[in-house]
Amino acid sequence: MSGTTIEQPPILSIRGVTKRFPGVVALADVSLDIAPGELHAICGENGAGKSTLMKILAGVIGSFEGELWLRGRPVRFADTRDAEDAGVGIIHQELNLVEELSAAANIFLGREQHGPFGWLNDRAMQRAAGALLSELECQIDPRAPVGTLRVGDQQLVEIAKALSRDSHVLIMDEPTSALTESEVARLFRVIARLRGRGVTILYISHKMDEIFRLADRITVLRDGRLIKTLERAATNAREVTHLMVGREIEATQVERDRQPGEAVLAVERLSLAWPGHARGWRLKDISFTLRRGEILGVAGLMGAGRTELLECLFGASPQPPGGRVRLAGREVRFRHPAEARRAGIALVTEDRKRLGIFSQMTVGENISLCTLGEAATGGLVVRRRERAMAESTVERLGVKTAGVDSAITSLSGGNQQKAIIGRWLLTRPKVLLLDDPTRGIDVGAKAELYQLMDRLCRDGLGIIVTSSELPELLTLCDRILVLCEGCLTGEFSRADATEQRIMEAATRRAG
Amino acid sequence: MNSGKLSALARANRNELGLLAAIVVVGALTAAFDSQHTYLRNPKPVAVDIVRQTAMLGIFALGSAIVIIAGGIDLSSGSMIAFGGTTCATIMLFLAPEAMPRNKPVGIEVIAIAIAGTLAVGFLIGSLHAWLITTVGLPPFIATLATLVGLRSLGRVIIENVTGAVLGSKSTQIQIYDRQFRYLATSVWVPAVLFLLLAFAAWLLLSRTVVGRHLYALGGNEQATRLSGIRTDRLKWLAYCLSAMLSSVAGVIFIADQSVADPQTLGRGYELNAIAAAVVGGCSLQGGLGTIPGTVLGCLFLRMVIDGIAKVIKAGADVYEGLIVGMVVVFAVALNQLRLGGGGQKRFFAGALGGVAVLNLALLAGVLTALLGGQTAGGLAAVAVFALLAAVKFFERRGNRAGAGD
């Protein structure tokens, strides 16, 4: 089919689409024609703009610059309902189902079939749902609550929902990320069947084996720009990977003569179960050591287990992890972050707004929160001492603020992040865990954070940092661990690490 | 103190200053519109009464405020008052089975033991709440709703059994005549000073201690608090215990005031008054916001409004209490929302729901006016309010159209 499809008039045409979020351009002038009936893969690193583009196509994001044309007519979707009515459906990475409702009810949610007097016609909906599902090789009871189904079946319910709406264009956002091997095989058969019905599919994935197995054409996005659209037959995985990561490494350079000392944290066969999930584990048999004065990077795609790894080390995981962790030679097993904090581990969380800052408090209160006890005498906080604590931190880390009494929300993202790092430095940690600390922070502030981390590291702190951006890790880290689906699939010293090699390890399906 | 510092202080305590001004305004209005001008002619008993009422509301409202600031809710305080009162009376009856029914002094040590026992029960119930919420995983609303209905009924069963066993005949209440015990409420000083002391302690706890800061953090962002290495479960334990213990203290004062412990009527519905006082005082049900001074002023404001209306319309304050509390809460919180949310562009009467709201408010105004001033006045008020709000609705729409045209 490939090759010839391009000559037909496109079913979907994206023309000069630009999307700006405050402070960042998520998509810059993207133009792309999708031929009817093709399977078009969209690739790119985290943050390349894939999800933004798909959200625009599916009507999740309503305001953008540029035009969309569907079957030769300009369209503009105000919401997902508009898009569905026009025949564009999306299967989100995080499924969008009401877990308490049955499969049939989910499939017909918002377009329930009803008889006279407005009574729901459950029987008819269940029959229709059953027919759709069995067409998708999904052997489930349409009356079963969706929450009781396996992830793979839930995904098929989503697909059935899109089909019941007569979608001609189906967007699949990393559909295999939570599936087992056999579920993946079934999904591929379903995709083949959908294509037999003439459905056009936009398939987002990082996984080269899938892309090369399924796609007719491959489009690579990077930093919000469309880099290239390739014919599958005329390219290979190496070229696509190269195009995905091919940006210049940022100019920020951190000096490279750090001398790591003795091991401060040793992790042996760390595992974390994932009850109720097909894979069964969030983390599996992860072993590594961290030395004093070393920055250790953790790379991996979304859902690879980066955050879970840091949570385990900090005593904040949903279940107690298996394996052994030694901190400064002593075996530790934290049941609560309070114990980890006391033992000298600090965690700067991933989602700053949700898990990091206290938006109702001032800069000073945010900084002193963990160590307020040191500013208290006889149980009462001495304001002067608390203030001095906060002010010295502000000065030390160069937090730009009108004063420690300002609201934390008045600070820029980078300065909020510095305040949170400052909060943790006051606890005098031995190990600092930073979970994607530069997300949503502008370039200048990133450079400042890099310098700060380097300085802390030279003072003897052991740092583990995760990031979605490989260049960042390559700039910062002495060593880089790579996770894929909860397993350690690579470890590179700075000398060996390249974006290409890391990306390959991060997309390597663990055997 | 220079003017810059003063204005900063005023900004930081804007809510409290606003409440203070509102309290003065309510007092002035009552003095003016009360046909007997009781506030001017006979201020002392009025002041004593308001102070007593405020203190008796305030003691347990402090607990509600602490729980709300910590991001929870305690619906059980009314029932906890009843159960605390029941416990206190039951212990006294047990320890002084001869003296209690015969109107003789029971002795100071009996009173002391009874109060200590009541506090202990408060601690136990608070711990039960904390356990249900943190360990069993119930939402605070459900856990305290269960005790809201459960404790009152348990109190009644206990009283029936205890009176049956000790006095020989079952009763649903225990009479308390002891003079020393009743002094806890007959003198305005005991509840007033107790309230101020407790409020001061609560203020110290919340604004000057590490634990207090952690309570605000917990209310503001529970996940972030836990990930800051703070034991949120212990904080919840503390908050719910304080709330239950303060309610049981209030229960002791209430039975001293009423000279009877009747779990069926004692403190019925007061949980909502306490939550209302906290919310009027600036606490947010989302948690993390609010102050003790605000809550104290919130209590005073509620009592002033209730008392003022009673004075002006010469009817029992308790008849209108629920209505007044409801309206005051809506107004106070709506004002706060508008101030924070910048509601300049807001349309209040848009669409069909807005139409029904116009009708609703007009009917409410009509019914209230009719109750106070007769049917004709009521009818006129309804029509007038309807016309006014309909005009507002009309202009909102035009304003919106004009805005959309730009």
Low-confidence segments of chain B: 401-406
> Proportion of β residues of chain A?
25-35%
* Span of the ends, CA to CA of chain B: 49 Å
Relative helix content of chain A: 25-40%
Report the radius of gyration of chain B as a whole number of Å: 24 Å
Oligomer: heterodimer
Number of helices of chain A: 17
Mass-distribution shape of chain B: globular
Give the tally of β-strands of chain B.
Answer: 2
Biggest sheet architecture of chain B: 2 strands, antiparallel
Radius of gyration of chain A: 25 Å
Q: How confident overall, as mean pLDDT of chain B? A: 89
Query: Count the strands of chain A?
Result: 22
The computed structural class of chain A is alpha/beta
Helix percent of chain B reads over 70%
Distance between the termini of chain A: 32 Å
- Most strands sheet of chain A: 6 strands, mixed
Strand content of chain B: under 5%
Instruction: Report strand order across the widest sheet of chain B.
Output: 1-2
Order of helices and strands of chain B: HHHHHHHEHHHHHEHHHHH
Structure, described:
The complex is a heterodimer of chains A (511) and B (406). By secondary structure, chain A is α/β, with parallel strands linked by helices. Chain A is 32% helix and 25% strand. Chain A is built from 17 helices and 22 strands. Chain A has helices at 50-57, 80-85, 103-107, 122-135, 151-164, 181-196, 208-214, 237-245, 306-313, 337-343, 352-356, 363-368, 383-397, 413-425, 443-458, 470-476, 499-506; strands spanning 12-21, 24-34, 39-43, 65-70, 73-75, 88-91, 169-173, 200-204, 217-222, 225-231, 263-273, 281-291, 295-300, 322-327, 330-332, 345-348, 376-377, 380-381, 431-435, 462-466, 479-484, 487-493. In chain A, strands 6-7-8-3-9-10 form a 6-stranded mixed sheet, with helices on both faces. A 6-stranded mixed sheet of chain A has the order 16-19-20-13-21-22, with helices on both faces. In chain A, helix 13 (383-397) packs across helix 14 (413-425). The longest helix of chain A has 16 residues, at 181-196. Chain A is globular. The two termini of chain A are 32 Å apart. The relative contact order of chain A is 0.11. Residues 1-6 of chain A have low confidence and may be disordered. By secondary structure, chain B is mainly alpha-helical. Chain B has helices at 3-12, 14-33, 38-41, 43-69, 77-95, 108-136, 140-167, 179-186, 189-208, 210-220, 222-227, 232-258, 270-280, 292-313, 317-341, 351-373, 375-405, and strands at residues 174-175, 260-261. A two-stranded antiparallel sheet of chain B has the order 1-2. In chain B, helix 14 (292-313) crosses helix 15. The termini of chain B are far apart. Residues 401-406 of chain B have low confidence and may be disordered. The A-B interface holds A 314, 316, 336-342, 347, 349, 354-361, 365, 369-370, 372-373, 376, 379-381, 423, 427 and B 204, 208-210, 213-214, 216-217, 220-221, 223-231, 288-289.
